[in-house]
Amino acid sequence: MKNADIYQRETLVLKNINLSVNKGEFLYIIGKVGSGKSSLLKTFYNELPLIVGNGTVCGYQLEKIRPKEVPFLRRKLGIVFQDFQLLTDRTIYKNFEFVLRATGWHNEKSIKDRIYEVLAIVEMSHAGPRMPHQLSGGEQQRIVIARALLNNPEIILADEPTGNLDPETSDALLQVFMEINAEGKTIVMATHDYPIIQRFPARKIICESNTIRELADDTEIIDFESLLEDLPSM
Q: Considering the entire predicted model, what is its pTM?
């Protein structure tokens, strides 16, 4: 991103964004509720169009991308949402099969092999015949990570993936992310979960005052309690 302004309709959310993320990096995006974390992620996958400035994601220029190119950009991205967004009327296997068929997979054996391959990565091989409501919140979030991996994306974008999880489950989930990252996958994660950042350190930027800045791992002292003061008690 170079000199990019991020808008929600006519409202300027972030201004003059300059950010580079290299292949294989793990990046946290932190900040108060409403500071622009999710808007930045949405710009990466073109849910919010980039109108001012320049941005390139997986070879696509965001300020010039055509509508017919957007699905191809998104196939290079794995997106993990806090609220799961699983189809509740079908099994986990059928959820995954739907995604693969929608993105051009046709061979039954290849579909089955890929589904159980990604389920194994998140230690949920047993979940294929289960319905979403039969799984815990932590299990569903693992399923969502597996779904994001189906088409072997170049980048995983995760928006508050631990927001509804207890600390133990959050730690297990971050361990999965770290293992995926160690295999060379780029991960960009928006979060306000500061304990997670402490336990699983990585590069981080903060959204504040309508822009972003990078935080040093050890040399800068930030009052992160102020990041949480606007959040409802959990």
A: 0.88
